[in-house]
Fold this sequence. Notes:
Elements: E1 8-14, H1 20-30, E2 34-37, H2 38-52, H3 58-66, E3 70-75, E4 78-83, H4 95-105, H5 108-119, H6 121-127, E5 132-137, H7 140-144, E6 150-155, H8 158-167, H9 174-183, E7 196-199, H10 205-220
Parallel strand pairs: 1-5, 1-6, 2-5, 6-7
Antiparallel strand pairs: 3-4
Helix pairs in contact: 1-10, 2-4, 3-5
Bound molecules: cytidine-5'-monophosphate.
Amino acid sequence: MDSPSPFLIVAIDGGAASGKSSTARALAARFPFLHVDTGAHYRAITAEMLRQGIPPEEAAVGRALADLALGTRVQDGAALLEIAGRVPGEEIRSPAVNAAVSHFAALRPVRAALLQYQRGQAEVARSHGFRGLVMEGRDIGSVIFPDAGLRVFLHADPEERARRRAREGQQDSIAERDRLDSSRQHAPLTCPAGAIDINSTHLSLDDVVARVAALVAARLSPP
Ligand code: C5P
């Protein structure tokens, strides 16, 4: 009898507008794996801090985080962060959040709160019967799941990434976010050793998904 496929964790990291979300969503639907967008976690916390008028400073943010009840809602193949029982809406993509998120994401209490929460998503996926987890972000292959079965790092030229973001109608300084995310002290954006590096500048989304899907398939049923 065939042994059951192992539970697979796929880590997809990359800079702003590198194609992570579209790739992760398509992969998750194909296998099907649980999809987790960790950028949305940092955005949701940022939106909440802005709503409460809290500045991006460790002590103040640490105190506010201690009072936030974080939960998870699994919906349409994705795990969504709940704050006090509510999944934040489109406000997490606002220009104000785009401008502030990298400042909040650099703070130790924010990263510490989300580290355990994000690792816990593997159990959420298992308990909902998924064969695996696709988690996208900046530090998934380096910090959250360094032992993931597959770690991918997506690159694209800055001009192409700016075009993609403009097509989505978003106002977003992606170069500035990348600069802040790459230069911070805790869990900086970096391509970890051993990750598979894909430059998507001249590839369609379907091409990128096909490449990563082939890597996933090889790990699910090794020869
Ligand atoms: O992926 P997205 O562009 O929505 O991420 C928004 C911001 O959240 C990033 O610019 C970064 O500051 C932060 N982030 C992070 N670590 C992750 C995912 C996102 O610091 N794993």
